[in-house]
Amino acid sequence: MCGICGLVGDNDPVLLDRMLDRLVHRGPDDEGTHHDAGVALGVRRLRVIDPTGGHQPVRNETGSVWAVLNGEIYNYRELRKELIQKGHRFQSNCDTEVLVHLYEEEGPEAVYRLRGMFAYAIWDRERDLVLLVRDRLGIKPLYYSVQPGKAGASHRVLFSSELPSLLEGLPDWTIRPQAIADFLSLLYVPGPDTIVEGVYQLRPGEALKIARGRLEFWRYYRPQEEALCQVEAPQGDQRARFLSVLRDSVQAHLVSDVPLGLFLSGGLDSASILACMREAIAGSIKTFSIGYDAPEDQSYNELKAARLLATHFGTDHTEAVLRPDAVSLLPRVVAGMGEPFADSSAIPTYLVSEVARQSVTVALSGIGGDELFGGYPRYLGLRAAARYAALPVAMRAWIASRAASCLPDGSGGRDVRGRIKRFLLDGYRPLDEQYLRWTTFQPAGWDAPLFADGLRAAVADSSALRNVRSLFGQWPSLEPADRAMGVDLQTYLPDDLLRMGDRMSMVHSLELRVPFCDHHLLAFACSLPAATRLQGWKLKGFMRSALQDILPKSIVSGPKRGFMLPLGRWLREDLREMSRDLLSDEAIRRRGYVKPAYVQWLLAEHQSGRRNFTDQLYALMVLELWHRQVAQPVSNPAMGAGVT
Hints:
Strand content: 5-15%
Mean pLDDT: 91
Low-confidence stretches: none
Shape: globular
Strand order of the largest sheet: 2-3-1-9-8-10
Number of helices: 28
Distance between the termini: 34 Å
């Protein structure tokens, strides 16, 4: 695991060093650079494979091909053996060196041979070519910006693993207005765009070739292509196949030359990974869970289920029972993300990563299991909505009007009342619009304009939200729940969960691995129709039936679990004064994004307990904290003076 950065069309060692300085947390063990005519590559390394060797950048025998890698190539040993048989000579035992030799054999198409999580850059001096590549599901990040050359020169391209590092080369950057609107709707800025004008992310499964100033983008992987291969097979055969593919994925993710562990929430995903780890590892397995000591927060604790699993599988288990200082914690989490990001799951992920790093360098996580095997209640809701659509639209619209006035909002989280109300409120809309409303965060009940005048004038109809509807319609299945899972695989998974997992682990120099995001396991999951994945109208019904013989019964039949936190209560108590400061009328007017009256309404409703506006308030607080942490950007004229 590392942080990489570089320049194409430029060779500025001072700038490269500044960019590397912003990536030290991703790679505290080693630093390397390579400079050539018009190209500079840099890397900060966290030693995981071949700790004593494997210095990057890595080169081929002649020095004509160089590579830097962030991530892990899990099948590097097999590839290395094959390349040695073809006459290639290796100087180390690290996975990065495989890249340069495999590239020599197969060119850019070498990516098809790789199994792992990766973002890498290859410099081919003889072809005057730089190749930037991101893994199939977007586990590892890669940001880039294309700047016009001076006096007719070729384009200048900057790239880096994190946005703050890239911005070292863009002193006059400006905020993209549409990104603010998208962030307040989704709680993250959806890729490939970013919060900054002219800065982008490579898409999952995308490569960028830069040859003699010419840029060519190439999508080498699209998950919807896996869904074209759905097959009907006996349930017993499918369950056996699932266990085989899961075991193979976990086994691949155990490749490491440093201590390794597991984030254990007590839910089905991490439990299934642990069961496979125990089959593969005879010795000690380190597991990590967190909980909260306040009596009022016990409903958020997952320690009991995690403890049961740790005892059942005989792990070396660490429980961190926390009552964190939320006021000092929030700025650290925002700084660790490096960009506006308001999924509050980042907070417990930050905390458990901090605990795990005290004893391991690598940790496995269950991220991805919900998107692959149907773990969110909204998937069942969409299947039910398709049936509900049989009622006349007028009847569903009348029910929605009655639900708005008669049903309570619920308290969020696992509260069924809120889910029922949302279902009925949106039940008269098309299915894609229903799903969009269920996954966005602009609250009902505020009828006046939400955005301030300057932002409202600068923002078009949201391209990000249109993209969600487009992906929903394009997914190759007639089953709405299949389409919803397909949307999440391409949006929520890479832009929220994987982004969060990467940043919150790497801020502690911890490598996070996600076996459910292995492309072989994804291909199997996509081969199952939603009716199979949600077998018996149960979340992860298929997965539960497949795991019933290798996990404790209480875990198989238990509710969805994950790293949660009592943020709603914190906003009313621990964070009450902080929220008032960050969201004061003065602060809101200074930014010029939303109406101060709207923010005061959110605060009053939440503090009184009448409504649960945790997500909306947290998003605004994160945005303000991020502004206070970053170097002040240049004002965007489209939004007026309130941007800085």
